[in-house]
Sequence to fold (285 residues):
Amino acid sequence: MSLKVYISGQLYDKDDAKISVYDHGLLYGDGVFEGMRIYGGKVFRMQEHLDRLWNSAKAIWLEIPMTPGDLAKAIDETVAANGLVDGYVRLVVTRGAGTLGLDPNRTSNPRVIIIADKITLYPQEYYENGLEIITVSTMRNHPAALSPRVKSLNYLNNILAKIEGLQAGCEEALMLNHKGEVAECTGDNLFLVKRGQLLTPPIDAGILEGITRAVVIELATEAGIPVREIPLTRHDVYIADECFLTGSAAEVVPVVKVDSRRIGDGRPGPVTRQLMTRFHEVTRQ
Ligand code: PMP
Fold:
């Protein structure tokens, strides 16, 4: 059975799921998106993802042509139509087809696309032994140019950083902000553990407000682990006891080496492992 993809009110076979080459989502990266996880046939933290999608759309003057309730229903139906129990949902809203010019007023019909598919995870080895990352020279978008809080279809900033990381042999790359502070990785947020406290850059460090980040902050707080959202430098990363990344696809993944320096004792630390276990429990309950 072919995978079904939802586009603006209808399900299509994957091979027939197409949009116009005049869509400004393609021509200019003019649109917004979300990446969500399906656990046990249900989308995890759907409401938070919808809120973020609507906020991203509002920031770029894009009106999503349906209500959040109807979109939630369409997502559930697409997940069910594909019989997915564990998987990933990519939600995309494009500006729609228009003329060959930037003017969004000359577009019509924003497309709402829902792709529900299996997920390709990081290899299990990363969760057991930890990931090695590197700081790259591509800095995170300056918030005054394009706020990193907007999850837009224009991901070139992160793609350039990802390429730099891959060229250095690393699956993830650490990006700094315009002030030289630690921001986030190309598709994941970053956490440190220092003397039993959880540290993570604040939103105004120029990062995406990760939904997994928020879940981990909640879980840590419940477990009595103090959490501080404070500006961090690379130095803080190097001297941390533990480091890990969070993201809808990656979940919670330990980092054991940054810029060739061993973090802590070079193995996933106890706080990281505790939070990985808790995260697993809340997603697979
Ligand atoms: N930062 C960036 C740049 C991302 O693309 C993502 C993944 N969407 C994240 C962080 C993690 O966010 P979330 O936990 O909401 O998936």
Q: What stands out?
A: The pocket of 4'-deoxy-4'-aminopyridoxal-5'-phosphate is lined by residues 35, 158, 184, 187-189, 208, 210-213, 246-248 (CB under 6 Å).
